[in-house]
Amino acid sequence: xxxxxxxxxxxxxxxxxxxxxxxxxxxxxxxxxxxxxxxxxxxxxxxxxxxxxxxxxxxxxxxxxxxxxxxxxxxxxxxxxxxxxxxxxxxxxxxxxxxxxxxxxxxxxxxxxxxxxxxxxxxxxxxxxxxxxxxxxxxxxxxxxxxxxxxxxxxxxxxxxxxxxxxxxxxxxxxxxxxxxxxxxxxxxxxxxxxxxxxxxxxxxxxxxxxxxxxxxxxxxxxxxxxxxxxxxxxxxxxxxxxxxxxxxxxxxxxxxxxxxxxxxxxxxxxxxxxxxxxxxxxxxxxxxxxxxxxxxxx
Length: 299
Prior knowledge:
Radius of gyration: 37 Å
Strand content: 15-25%
Low-confidence stretches: 1-52
Shape: elongated
């Protein structure tokens, strides 16, 4: 009886040992080096990463000058913010003369001038970002629709004083213009040959003021950037040619000028300012300039 009990105990112990050897216990498995090689390529053979995106910059760019460029600058600053969200571009409209002076004395990063530089404006250079027609505007109720360059000059120098002389209704013509130093005034007077000869009833400090005054006076006539003209005034044809993007670009509309960035020749632009200039003068910004009513020059 004792022998049989001992045999059963030995048999049970043997079974326990066999179960343990067959995986009945907890085990830790470590992958072999070969397995690692299959799942993970060596560092020297790792695939190359994609090219990084354009460098993202930060900073502030201060621009100052032409009020005629307000619409263009609005579109450009909004579009640039999507490309370089870390850069803030500020715009102040104080006239083209102030834009040139600001670039000369460093009070702004980029000056804005809706005219070309004069011979005596030294130490700076201009970069043309767009072209713009100078529209001759009258009140929408004025029946006059077309004038020649000569007639426009005679109106603004006081040789023609009544609308009836031009096929319009009897009424004293009210010439409205811009202040001295305005790029729009400079462009208008140089093209019409009326420098220092214009007789204005009002000299206003912004394109918006000119438009508002013409819109409220049936006998008024003025000039304004084509990019700013709205339905409150009527743009005349000049010599039978309407001011449009196409006629400005092909040169058939006579009264037109350049929209320029004015840059210091002695002070290097900051990386943020240079990035804005490069982008604004590229084809990437052309559609935005056109949307603002001006004519892009980048091809």
